[in-house]
Amino acid sequence: MSRFSLPQDAAFQALNTSLGFDRRLWPFDVAQSRAHVRMLAAQGIISEADRDEILGGLDQAASELEAGTFPFLPDDEDIHMAVERRVTELTGPAGGKIHTGRSRNDQVITDLAMFTRDAATRLSGDLEQLRAVVLQVAEAHLDWPIPGYTHLQRAQPVYLSHHLLAYFWMLTRDIERFAAVLRATSELPLGAGALAGVNFDTDRRMVAAELGFAGVTPNSVDSVSNRDFVLDLLHALSVTATHLSRLGQEIVLWTSTEFGFMTLSDAWSSGSSIMPQKKNPDAAELLRGKAPRVWAHQAALHGVIHALPLTYNKDLQEDKEHLFDAVDTVALCIAAAGGMLETATFHRDAMSAAASDPMIAAVDLADFMVKRGMPFREAHGVVARLVRESVDGGTSLADVTTAELGAEAGAIFEQSSWLESKVSEGGTALARVREQLEQARALLPA
Ligand code: ARG
């Protein structure tokens, strides 16, 4: 019997169904159903015979899902209904008891919490690998000077190791963000029922223990309304994607003929369909291009949840595609970033030549005069004038400086001194970079 006298309109079904995207939740759905029916039997809510029949049906459904032979039907609205329908088909009346003391509202958020934990764990493992690659490439290019830029204008030279380690610390903060996501999913929502709790004496803590949750959520209304950990994961993903977009952009610049700092492995390059000479950094461009879609997913889910009255509303079904696409996109981007960096070649001469422009020592020259007693602002003015004379006269800044201030000032234009003078903690002097490498190595798993 059904409450309805008409079949669902086909367009409504097409709008309403989530099976196309939520079927990937099946391993979590099956695992939670196993834990749920074991608990029902342990509490005497269903018989042990029913429990065993249901567990058998779940095993069968799981192997069909695994093998891709699961017989989905057009009426299966989502993965939860499809699994229950199939278990009931396989086991008869026992299967009809699987949903005792449970609603799809607490079921779906439990699946999603499990998916989120799994994804956050996987991605933070991927980030740890990428971090190790960054560290290894930094170590291999310890004392290679490159220009550091502000406004994409040559600003002050740094070592390539130092520049690359900047990404190490970004990734380290990313990993911490994923750890926070895990903390946000540590309580089991299952047992909240539709929204009010259930009419059975369930043991939520037993289910939590079997599924690896540290505890249970304290409020059934909040349990089925909450999507915070999805927003948290989308936030963590957005920041990671944004970091990788900056790396992508630097790779695009550095591999250009104009910079010539870096060559990508052929395994990470593509050709042009018309220009035979081309070797394009498509993967790096996609690190740049994919990031906005990740944070757009985050913005979209904020929009879905914004002003949504408690508790469950079908709007919340929209959480999944945003989450899944963001997770898959960032996983690919992390793999690409690691693959490109690990196999790239850096060009010492080109980087060093770009970092030898005497103009890049302007701050050092000003500081030289400060150390002789001139106030910094005044020294800044003197150097600015020397720079203008150098530009107007087409003479190098080193020569203009030597002519006006003497040989001792001219000696500032030794490239290694600009780098090795940056001795402040966290600066680019080699001793400081070595300290940083130590700190970084200490964070890697043994
Ligand atoms: N497919 C739904 C979702 O993803 C499952 C929950 C449906 N609950 C309901 N009361 N219609 O949100």
Task: Please specify the SSE layout and strand pairing.
Layout: H1 10-16, H2 19-22, H3 26-42, H4 48-67, H5 79-91, H6 104-140, E1 145-150, E2 153-159, H7 160-184, E3 187-188, H8 204-211, E4 215-216, H9 220-225, H10 228-254, E5 262-263, H11 282-305, H12 319-343, E6 345-346, H13 348-354, H14 362-371, H15 376-393, H16 397-405, H17 407-410, H18 415-420, H19 430-443
What is shown here, in short?
Keywords: Amino-acid biosynthesis, Arginine biosynthesis, Cytoplasm, Lyase. The chain has 446 residues and is mostly helical.
Characterization of the model:
The chain has helices spanning 10-16, 19-22, 26-42, 48-67, 79-91, 104-140, 160-184, 204-211, 220-225, 228-254, 282-305, 319-343, 348-354, 362-371, 376-393, 397-405, 407-410, 415-420, 430-443, and strands spanning 145-150, 153-159, 187-188, 215-216, 262-263, 345-346. The chain is mainly alpha-helical and 446 residues long. The strands form three sheets. Strands 1-2 form a two-stranded antiparallel ribbon. β1 (145-150) and β2 (153-159) form a beta hairpin. It is elongated. The model has no long low-confidence stretch (mean pLDDT 95). It binds arginine. Arginine is lined by residues 18, 22, 78, 104-105, 108, 312, 314, 316-317. It is an enzyme of class 4 (lyase). Pathway: Amino-acid biosynthesis; L-arginine biosynthesis; L-arginine from L-ornithine and carbamoyl phosphate: step 3/3. It catalyses: 2-(N(omega)-L-arginino)succinate = fumarate + L-arginine.
